[in-house]
Amino acid sequence: RLHGLEYSGDEDEFSDEDRSQIILANNQLFEHTILRINYAMYDLRREQDSMNARTHADIMMLSHKDHKDRHPYLYARIIKVFHVNVWYYGPGINQTAPTHMHVLFVHWFGRDITFNAGWSAKRLHRIGFFKRDDPDSFGFVDPDQVIRGVHLIPGFHYGWTNTRLRPSFVRPPEDKDTDWLYFYVNHFVDRDMFMRFRGGGVGHKMSQDLYELLRIDGAIVENAENEFDFRRLEEEDDEIEEMSCEGEDSEGEDSKGEDNEGDNSEDEEDIIIADEGEELDDEYLTQEGFGAL
């Protein structure tokens, strides 16, 4: 940010000389408990997510990767929210006051590329924390790169693990130094999230190639037997429609027969039989509607 470079997924490398030009004022970090992100929904309405490291800590960002297995988004869990005052002594820079900057310290999620997911595969994307020896496990993020909070569903079937990270302050005490092995990214938590994975939201800022990536997301299915054949479904619908038409014709004929029987029954005279010890007179029959007109 101090160099005016556009964020490209932490692919820019800086030398020790570049780092020596940056000094934190008074060697201080100022910690915050809440991060609020304003974003535009799919229908251009404004919305805000309020996040903190304890109860709503998972975030999503646009991906800047270009490899074949790339995914439109990056996912991370907020550990700390800071702001710092930075003095920058770069070439040609003459600061009169430190620069106020916000920064997030995050624990990165990695997507399981061996798990076929997406619309065609009809499965949610599966992610998990990087292993402890991976240099990309932790990092710092500009809050301006955060799109919004994301809802993750733990993979209950796979259970907990303590192999991803040693005992650390980055976990809440109730987790007892363990993590869920996998999480599923919930595409259906609300309408805006659905459109972010479906594509086409007029309020969403996304390049055309990422829209195309969403369109073909999960198009290659590992088990072809599980593919849903829409053509076969249409043929079955046509067969059901034909059967229903035939059934309606037969029902119509049956109803005609019933109507004819009903007509014949109307011509027949209703007969009232008296119970034992009861006498039916003409006045009683008239009250009951069986008398002569």
Helices and strands, in N-to-C order? HEEEEEEEEEEEEEEHHHH
Proportion in β-strands: 25-35%
The 3D shape can be described as globular
- Low-confidence segments, given as residue ranges, are 220-234
SS content category = alpha+beta
Percentage of residues in helical conformation: 10-25%
What Rg, in angstroms, do the CA atoms define? 35 Å
**Number of discrete helical segments:** 5
Overall pLDDT score = 76
Biggest beta sheet attributes: 10 strands, antiparallel
Distance between the termini: 102 Å
Record field, number of beta strands? 14
Structure description:
The protein has 293 residues and is an alpha+beta fold. Helices cover 22% and strands 25% of the residues. It has five helices and 14 strands. The chain has helices at 16-20, 191-198, 208-215, 230-267, 282-287; strands at 22-24, 30-32, 35-40, 46-51, 58-62, 73-88, 99-111, 126-129, 138-141, 146-149, 152-154, 160-161, 179-180, 183-185. A hairpin with a 5-residue loop joins strand 3 (35-40) and strand 4. The longest helix is centred in the C-terminal third of the chain and has 38 residues, at 230-267. It is globular, with a radius of gyration of 35 Å. Residues 220-234 have low confidence and may be disordered.
